[in-house]
Amino acid sequence: MEIALCASFVAILLTTVLFLKAISRCSRRKYNLPPGPKPWPIIGNLNLIGALPHRSIHEPSRRYGPLIYLRSGSFPVVVGSSVEMAKPTTAFIDRPKTAAGKYTAYNYRDITWSPCDAYWRQARRVFLTELFSAKRIESYEYIRREEVHAMLRDLHAASGSGRRVAIMIKDYLSTASLNMITRVVMGKRYVQGEVIHERGSVRTLAQFKELLEELFFLNGVFNVGDQIPWLDWLDLQGYVKRMKKVSKALDQLLEHVVDEHIERRQREGNGFVERDMVDVLLRLADDSSLEVKLSRDSIKAFTQDLIASGMESSSETIEWGISELLKKPKVFAKASEELDRMVGHRCWVNENDIPKLPYIEAIVKETMHLHPIGPLLAPRLSREDTSVGGYDIPSGTRVF
Fold first, then answer.
1. How many CB atoms lie under 10 A from the CB of residue 180?
2. Three-class SS state of 253
3. Which domains can be identified in the chain, with CATH numbers?
4. Which of 3, 6, 292, 304 has the highest count of CB atoms within 10 angstroms of its CB?
């Protein structure tokens, strides 16, 4: 009797669930989704993703067109791979929640991973009007000039030693780029072999570079836990463990930097003058008129964004440019001729000369086209139902 009653209950329950599911399907809007390969159960189209995700995603676009629909584990994904499909729209201004944003960006407190809310809008205004205003960028021109000259002097000294030695240009480029950024952001210039922070795990310039490279890498990895949330706790690839480690190390350094700046403000009192971007952020943190108060974590997250996003992108692009020029002697000769003609053979090139160098500017743009630092930008999230290229993009879809 009890078995029959239990069986009847299970049958009624299953019938109810199936009935509700059928009603849900009938009432659900029918979307005209972009074309794409058929997904597998659970993993979706993750089977298509190889070691270079941007190339893996490009392959289906050659078959299905410039706008394709995929399933990335548990989530729908739309990939636009043409200029027309990549036109900006406010529907795609949000960000999905990812492990990188949680563990390396102070729980989404930076500007890269922050969701589109009042905090993000305020952060964007701070970056545009305070940190990257034309006047402030111009005021740091002397720093960029000094660091370029220092790099060229170091390269000249290394190449003029009288011995035939291989020179790793990337090391000089990354050091110059890092020092430009750290002087502008933190008021610091780091020297090879110098102890950066005695009490923290970041002690030397080499360790600092390694941490920033690790941070850059982890913010671009294809983490399985981000695609299939119920597998997140397993950390199958070990990325979350690495994120926590690099975040802890960088936080120790950033804590030290913030403390130094606060101590200088207190020590100088009324005679205090802002020297760098951390000083600007600390001043804004005390501004009671802000819609959302900037916390200490906000200051550290913005500082980390400014340093990490600038160092790798600049040095890598220049390295690729030099590599391409060395393989094309005619292009190299034409660029040299333009420099000699417009600037002079024995003159330093400065930022005011850039408008007079269209050929070199074209080389830089083509380098960025051939070797983009981030072929896949951080994913966006569709905040509402919208249409692109004649296809429907449902709310909640991740967009690349």
1. 22
2. helix
3. 97-318 (1.10.630.10)
4. 304
